[in-house]
Amino acid sequence: MSKRKRPDISSLKEGVLAGNRVMLSRAITLAESKLETDRNLAEKLMDELMPYTGKSFRLGVTGVPGVGKSTFITRFGKKLIEEGYKLAILAIDPSSPTTGGSILGDKTRMGDLATHPQVYIRPSATGGTLGGISATTRECSLICEAAGYDFIIIETVGVGQSEVGVRHMVDAFLLLLLPGSGDELQGIKKGIMEMADIIVVNKSDGVNATQARETRQAYSRALKLFPPKPHNFPTKVLTCSSLSGQGTGKIWKELSDFWRNTLDSGYMKQERSRQRVLWAKSHIKELMEYYFYGHPRVKEELPGLLLQVEDGKLSSLSAARKLIDMFFNTSIHG
Amino acid sequence: MSKRKRPDISSLKEGVLAGNRVMLSRAITLAESKLETDRNLAEKLMDELMPYTGKSFRLGVTGVPGVGKSTFITRFGKKLIEEGYKLAILAIDPSSPTTGGSILGDKTRMGDLATHPQVYIRPSATGGTLGGISATTRECSLICEAAGYDFIIIETVGVGQSEVGVRHMVDAFLLLLLPGSGDELQGIKKGIMEMADIIVVNKSDGVNATQARETRQAYSRALKLFPPKPHNFPTKVLTCSSLSGQGTGKIWKELSDFWRNTLDSGYMKQERSRQRVLWAKSHIKELMEYYFYGHPRVKEELPGLLLQVEDGKLSSLSAARKLIDMFFNTSIHG
Hints:
Distance between the termini of chain A: 29 Å
Oligomer: homodimer
Largest sheet of chain A: 7 strands, parallel
C-alpha cells in the first residue's frame, strides 16, 4: 500500500459493503500489509466490518498436491452458484512467496469460474511476520463475508501446518483423497483425517471408479475407530468426479445438512465464539513476538547470545532472561 | 521453597557436583519452584552447573498407559546399572497435579531399583506457569547430569502433547508398543511413530510371543514408508519381555550403537545445540506470557474484552491490540 494514496477507511467500508470488487481487493491488500500504519488502519476496518460478518458458511478444503483441489473447487463452486450462493475462494499457496504471483495461476486453473460475477478468487499472501499466513487469511475471509459472499472456501495445501490454522477459521473441513492408495501412501497425517468433517475421494471416474469405491469403504471403516466429533455429525466418505461432476450433488447435500444441523444445535455459534477467542490469543502472541524480535537492543544482542547458547556457554534460561530484561528496560513505549 | 531457609547457590552447586542426593533434590525443587525469587536463583544455579552437563545420554520413553513403561524402565535400568551407568529417571506424571504426590507411586512401581545407590528417581512437577512441564523437566535432567548421572531416562505418558516437548530434550526417543494391535487401536499418533528412534514391542512373553513378532514385522514394514531420519540411523523394531528380561540386551546394544554413531558423526553435538536454541526461544515465549498475563491491568481487562470477542462485539485483532497497548503503557519495569 505504501506507494498508493492511503485508503480512507469509511470509503473502503462503504465499497466493501456495496460489494465493489475493486474496494474489496484494496481492503484485502490493506489487511495483508505488514506496515504498522496499515495494520492500524486494517484493525479499524475490521472493527467496522465485524457487524456485517458471520452469515456465511466457511469451508476448508485440503488434500495433498495432485489430488485435484482446484478442479474440485471449480466443479463444486459451479454447484454452489447454481444454488444461488455468492462464492469467495481464498487459496493459501506457499509456493508463491509474494502476493499476486499466483492470482493468474489460480484464475487460469479455475477457468470460467474466475470471471463469474458471483465469484471472487484471491490467493493469500504468505510469510507475514505480523499476523502470519493464517491470521491474514482469516481477516480476508471476514472481509469477503462483509462484501456479501455467503460461501467461503479456503484452500490449503495439505502438507504442512497450515491445516491446523485453517481448521480454526472454518465451520467445516473437507479432505480430498485419491482413489486406491493407503493412508501412508497419500502422505495424509492422521491428525488431518481427525480434523475432517467430510472426506471426498476425488477422480472417481473411468478406470478409477471401482478403486474409488474401495477407498471410500476403507476410509469409512477406519473412521469408525475415531472418537465422535464434538458436533456429533458423523464424518461421511463420498466419491466425486471433478471431471464429470458426478457426486457434487451428494457432497452439497451433506454439507448443507451439516450447516443446518450445526446451526440448529447451536454448535456453530459456540464454535465460532471459541475460534474468535483463540484468534485473539494468537494475535496477542504474534504482537508480542513482533515487538520483541523487532526491538533494537534485542535485535542487536540476540545473535550473539544465541551463539553462546549454541556453544553451551550460556544456559537457555539465562539467555532468555537477559533478552527479556533488555526488552522491558528499554520498552518501545517508554 | 518458601517455608524453608533460602538455599545458598554455592552450597547447592557443591552438593550437586559431589552427588549429594539431598542437595540434588533441593536443587530440583528450586528449579521447579514458581516463585519469581526462586526462579532467579534457579537461573543462577543452572548457569553454574552448565559446564558440568552434556556427558550423559538422554533417552525419552513413551507409550500409551498400560504398555508397561515403569516395568520396562525398571528392567532396562537394571541392565544399565550392570553396564556401570549411574541412572536418573524423570517421570512426567500428569495424573498427579502436585509435586511429590507420585514419588511414592514411582518408587513403589519401580521396586528395588528405587533404593539402588546408582539410581535417582524423580517425578516432574506438572502445570508450571513459568517454564511449563517440559522446561522444568529439562532443567531437572541437566541438574542430574551435573550430579554425575550419565544415563537419563525421561518417561512421558504417550497420550498428549508432552512427547513433542520431551523429543526436544533427549538424544533418542524410544516408543513402547503392545503386541498384536494396530496403529489405531494402540492410540499412537503417527507423529509419535515418526519421532521414535527405536521401537520396542513390550510384553513379548508367554502367549504373546508370536503376536509380538508379528507386530514387530508389521511395524518394520510400516517404517519403510517413512522418510529417513536426519541422523541416518535406521529405526529398528525390537521385542522385549520386561517380565523375564528377554530382549533388554539387544535394546541396550541398539541404543549404545545409536549413541556411538551419533556421537562420532557429530550429529548429537549439532542436535543438542539446536535444542538449546529452541529452548531459549521457548523460554522467551513463556516469560513474555508470564509477564503479559500476570500484568495487573491485563488481568483486570482481559475477561471483559474476551467476552466481547466471544459475543462478536469486538474483533479478535482489536482486543489483542487493546490488551497489548495496556501492557506496554504500564509495563512492569516502568
